[in-house]
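Hey,
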Amino acid sequence: MSKKSAKVVNVRDIESVTLSDSIRVRRLITKGREGSDKIMFGVVFVEPGNKPLKWKYEVEDEVYFILKGEVTIYCNNKKIKVKEGDAIYLPAGEKHGLINEGKESATIIYALSPPIQ
């Protein structure tokens, strides 16, 4: 087993993945690239007026921290409004999605455990 060591990743050096016409993600810490087998970490950018994109992780827990702006999170059949400074825990098995009903871009950092990539 190889020894793991600290790694620095800059958001500008990571290519964006486009999830929809108005949602982009930059996966900063991943299993494949950094060797993290316990957590995945990244940044999500959600533009105003996006179409809700919903997904569900069966075994992974997810945490969002709203760094800028505000979004509505659809979690199962609930609408939860979160704003800058809020954190939300999304347990495995709950279908969820994001929509930005505001006028400015939202920036969200997330952690996913265990990592999917």
